Fold each of these.
Amino acid sequence: MIDVLAAGPVDLLATRSYYAGTFLLLGIGAYVVIASPNLVKKVIGMNIFQTGIFLFFIASAYVEGAQSPIVGPKAVGPFVSPLPHVLILTAIVVGVSLTAVALGLIVRIYNEYGTLEADVLQEVRTDD
Amino acid sequence: MTDLPPFLVALPLVASVVVLFAGLARSETGWPIATLAGLAQLGLAATLAYRVFTAGPISYVVGGYEAFYGIELVIDGLSASVVVLIAAVSLGVLAYARTAGPRGNPFYATYLLLVGGLTGVAVTGDVFNMYVFIEISGLTAYALVASGDTGRSAVAALKYLIVGTVGASLYLLGVGYAYIGTGTLNMADLSAMLAEVGYQSTLVQTAFAFIAIGLFIKTAVFPLHTWQPEAYAGSPDSVSGFISALVSTTFAYALIRISLSVFTPDFFAAVDLAQTLLIVGAVVSIVAGSLLAVSQTEIKRMLAYSSVSQFGLVLAGLAVLNQTAMIGATVHLLGHAVMKGGLFLAAGVIATATGAREVHEYEGLSERMPYAAGVFAVLAFSMVGVPPTVGFVGKWYIAVGAVEAQLWPLAAIILASTLLTLAYFARLVERMYFREPAAADDHVEGESAEPQPDAVVADGGRPSLGMYAAVLVAAALAVTLGAAVVPFAELLEPTLDLLLS
C-alpha cells in the first residue's frame, strides 16, 4: 500500500479506481440525502450512499488473477476472499428492508399531508 | 462454559414471531405473550449476570465455528449490566403499554424484536454482527416511532430512518477499514491485530473516526442528534419511554465497547486526536443539549434534548479513560435509562389524565395530580443530581474521574452540567408547585380551539394501575439505586480492569 501512495495521485487513481468510485458514490448519496427536498429522492440518495459502501467491501476482496472461491476437486488457488461477499449480501438485505420501511412511511406521509416535498411538508405542518 | 448466551437473543426473536402468528388466530394475545417472554428474558439475564459477576466473563462460540471464522458472543460485567437493564426496562414499559397502547400484536412483535436486537448489540463479540444487530434495533425503532397514528410520527420516523441509516452505514464503513487493515472481524482478534498494524496508521485512525461518528449519530451526540427530539416527541408515550431508555443507551454502550475492547486505551494514548474527538463531543453535547432543552416549550422535546446532554456526560466518562470515570459512565448510562424512561412515562401519565403536553400547561399540576407531579419531581431532581439519587452518584464518579485525570476544563463542564440540568427542570417543578393553574376552564377551551394532534393519542381516560406502577418503580429505583452503586462498582471493577488495561 505504501508504494502505491509513493507512486503519485494519477497512478493511485488508475490502480485504485474502485476506491475513487466508492467515495464518489458516498459523496453523491450524501449530497442527494441532504440537498433534495423530495422524500423519495432522499431514500434513493440513502441507497446510493449504501451502494458506495458495498463497492468498498467487494473491491477489498478482489485479488488480481484469482478464481472465484468455489472449492472443488479441480479448484486451484489463489481465490478471491469470500467473506466480504457474505457480509455485503447481509448488508444488501438490510438495505432492502430499510428501503421498504422508508417507502411505507412515505406512503403514509403522502396520504396524511398530500405532498412528498420536505419544504412543503414543513409549511403544512406548521399550519396545523 | 454455558449454553445460555444465544438464548438471550433468540428468546425475544422467537417470541416476536410467536406473537405475530398468535395475532392471526386471536388478537389481543400480544401482551400476555410479550410479558411472559419479558419475564423469561429477565430471568435469563439475571442468571447470566450472576454467573458473570461470580465466575468471570462468559464467551460462547455460535454454531461451533471457532472464533476468527465464527461469531463469538462475549458477556462481561459491562454487557451483563446492559442486558439486565434492557430486560428490566422492557418489562416495565410493558406494564405501562398494556392500557396506554399502542395495541395490537404487530406492535408487541416489533417491541420484542427491538429487545432482541438491543440485547444482540450488548452481547456480541464481532463487529459485523454488531452492525447487523444495530440495524435490527434501528429498523424496529423506526417502526415503533411510526406506530403512533398521527402524521407527525410518520415524519419523525422517516427522518430517524434516514439519519440513522447514514449513522449505521458510517459504522459499517469504519468496520470495512478495520477489516481491510487486519482481515478479522472478531473484537478480541481485532484489538490485537490493530495494535500490530500500528495506531499511527491512517487506516486504523480512519476506522476509528468512521465508527465513532457513526455511533455518535446513533447515540444522538450534538450536533448529530437531529433525528432524536422529533423521534421521541412524535412517538406514542410508551414508545418514547422505551426508546429513550434503551436505544441510545445501547448504542452508547456499543461506542464504549468498541473504544475499549477493540481500539483499547493504548490507542487513545497513542492518538491524542481520538481522545479529543470524544471530549469535544461530550462537552458540546452537555452544553448545547441543556441550552436547547431550556428553550423548548413541549415537555417531550425538552426531555429529549436533556438526553442529548446526559449522553454527553456518559461520553465524558468514557473520554477520561480511568476506572473512576468509567464506573461513573456505566452508572450514569444505566441510571439515565431508568430516570429518563420514568420521566417520559410520567409525562405520558400526566398527558393521559390532563392532556398537558406543554411546559406552561404544567402550571399548578401538583393540585390536580399530586402523585404524578410528585413522582415527576423526584425523577427530575434525580436527573439533576440531588444526593442520594443514582443521578448524583453517576455524575459524582465521572467528575471525580475527570479530576483524577487532571482534565480540569472537562471537570468544570461536568459540574456545571448539574446547574444546566437544574435550569430546565427547575422551571417545570416551579410551575407544578408554585403557580396557580392558569384560569383553568377558559384556558382549556382556548387550547382545544387549536386541536393538538398528539393530545388525541391520550385516551382522555384515567391512567391505569400499570401505568402508575411503571412510573413509581422507576422513581423508587432512581432514589434507591444510588445506595447500590458502591457494591455495584466493586462487582464492576474486574471487568473495568480488563477493559482499561
Amino acid sequence: MQKALVSIAVAASLGLGATAANAAILDDVKAKGYVQCGVTGGVPGFSAPDSNNVWTGIEVDFCRAMAAAIFNDAEAVRYTSLTSQERFTALSAGEIDVLSRTTTWTMSRDTQLGISFVGTMFYDGQGFMVREADGIASALDLSGAAVCIESGTTTELNAADYFAANGMDFNTVVFVDQDEVVKAYEDGRCDVYTTDSSALAAERSKFANPAEHIILPEIISKEPLGPVVRAGDSQWFNLARWTYFALLEAEELGVTSANVDEMLGSDNPAIKRLLGVEGDFGTPLGVTKDWAYQIIKTVGNYAETYERNVGPSTPIGLERGLNALWRDGGIQYAPPIR
Amino acid sequence: MTDIGYVRSDLVDARPAPNRTSGPIAWARKNLFANPTDTLLTALGVLFLLWILPPLFGWTIFNAVGPNGTVEECRMENAGACWAYISSEMEFFIYGFYDIPEQWRPNIVFALGALLLTPLLIPKAPFKRTNAVLFFLVYPIVSYFLLAGGVFGLRYIPTEKWGGLLVTLIISVIGITLSFPIGIMLALGRQSSLPIIKTVCVCFIELIRSVPLITILFMASIMLPLFMPQGTTVDKFLRAIVGVTLFTSAYMAEVVRGGLQAIPRGQYEAAAALGLGYWQRMGFIILPQALKHVIPGIVNSAIALFKDTSLVYIVGMKDLLEAVKTKNDTALEWQSANTATTGYLFAAMVFWVFCFGMSRYSIYMENRLNTGYKR
C-alpha cells in the first residue's frame, strides 16, 4: 500500500514538475516516429483545417518544420487540438511534444509553468480597422472617433491607454460579444474597430467587401505568439529554437523551397553552413547535418510560410509589418549559424 | 294485404351525417371555433404561422443556395441558407480529419452498424441471439480495427484524426450500450443488502450525479494527465468515452431504481417463494417488469447522452457540432452572412433526426410491451 502511495506521489510530481529528470524528448520522438503537435481548435491562418481537411497554418508549418528536421519528412506530425485551458497541462504532462497554438509569450508563463517559449513566430498586437472611404492613414488621425470595442478585455484598456498617451479623445461603443462588435462596425455605428490585428484581418475577410476596409499600421500592444516546449530539456529546446531560426535565416539568405537545390552549390559560406554543405551543425542538435535543407525543401523559409498562410495574398491578408526581417524594417532576427 | 300500397323490402342506406356534425367544417367548428376564446386563439395561431412560415421557408428553401451553388451566390444581398457550404464541407462534418482516401473505412463501419442494428431493433426479425453477439461483441472489435487500422495492411489512423458525426455516433453508441448494463448493476447494487456493495454503488452514483458532465470531462482531460507518469497518456477519445459512459450510468441507475421500486414487494416474495436464486429472481421476474415501466426514462437518458456528446470539445475532440463550428470559423472561402447559421441549422437537423428516431422507437417499444396496462 505504502509502495503504491509513493509511486502515485512520484507520478504526480513528475507530471506536475515536468523536470529535467525525464528521458530526452528527442529520443522519445525519434522512437515513436512523429512529433505530437498541440494546435488550436481552428484559427484561420494559424492552425486550421484546409479544404482537404488537413491541418494548415503558420503554426502548423512550424511543427512540420521540426518533423522535417528530425525525420526528413514534414508529414511525420500528429496534431492534438487543444483548448486554451488545457494547453499547458497537455504540454507538461507530455501529451504533446511542442505547443504551437497562438500562445502569447508572457513572463509568468515562461517562468512559472515549467515551460519554455522558443521564439516569436508571429508578432501580433492590437490594431485598428477603418473604412477606406474615411481617408484615415494613421491611428494618430483618429482623434474624436467612435471606437467599437469588446467590453471587459485588455483591448479596451489598451485603447484607452493609447488615446490618452497621444492626447486624443474618443468615444467608445462597447459590446459584450465579438460578433456584435463586428456587426456594429459594419453597420456604421462607429468609425473604428479595434482588436488583435490578426483577428481584425480574419474578421475583415468575412465582410461582404473586404477591400473597403483597411487595417492601420499602428500596433498598440505586444502579443508575441510563439511555439512552446517543456522546460528542462535543452536539446529539444535548442532543436525547436533553431528550427525557427533556420526558417528566418533561409529567408534572409534568399533560400526558398524552389531554389534550395541550386543553393547547395552556392559559394556563399553562410548558405553553405545553413544547408550543411560546410560544417556540421545538425549533429549537436541531435539531427542530421542537412536538417535545415530538409526544412526549407519541404516547408520553405519563413517568408514562404507567412505568405502561404497569413500574407497579403491570402484571405487573412496581413502585411509583414513587425514580422518582416530586421533588414526590411521588421523585428524578426535570427542569430547567425556558425 | 293488398291495401298496403307500398312496403319497402330493404333497409334505407344510412345517410351521411349532416354537415354540421361531421366533415371538415364540423371538425373546424368543434376544434378551432367552438367558442370566442378558441376562435381568437385560432386567429392568433394562423397569424403567427403567416408571420413565421414565409420567411422560414424563404430562408431555408426558396432563397437558399442549393448544394451545387457557389459562394458568390451565398454572398448575394437576399440570399438564404447556404447549403452549398454544407455539401462542400460535408466530409469534415462526417469524418473530421480522417484521411480522405481512407474514408471508405468509416463508411463500412456505418453500413455494418446499420445492417446489424436494424434487425436487432425489429422484434420479429430472426436470429436475435446471433445478431446480438455479432453487434455487441464482434462489431466493436471489427470497427476498431477498421477505423484505427495498423493491421492487415490498413494505414494507422490515430484517434486525433477522427471527428464529426463519426465521433458523435461512436461515443453515443458505446455510451448507451455500456451505460445501460452498468446502470442496472448499480441500481441492483444500491438495493443490495450487502453493505460494501451498497455503499460503493451509492457513493459512485451520488458522486457522479452531483458534478456536471463538463467537469468530469475537464477532470479527465486536465487532471488525469497530472496524476500519471510522464509519457504515459491515455487516449483522449477513450477518456471522453469513459467519462460520458460513467456519467450516464449513474443516471441510468437511478432511472432503473425507480422501476425496481415500482414493483410490489409481493413480486419479490413470490419469486423467492418459487425457490429462485437472486439472479434468477431479478432476471426472470423483477427486471422485465421494472424495465418496462422505465422505458421513457431510459430513452430520456440515451437522448441526453447523445446530445451531451457535443461537450467532448472540452477535451479537444471534434464531434459534429464542434466540426461545424470549426468550419464556420476557418473556412474563409465560404464566409458569408448566412454560412454560420446554415452550419448550425445543419447540425441541429442531424441531432434532431437521431433524437426523434430514438424517441419514436421508444414509444413503439412501450406500446408493444405495455400489454398489462393498455389504456
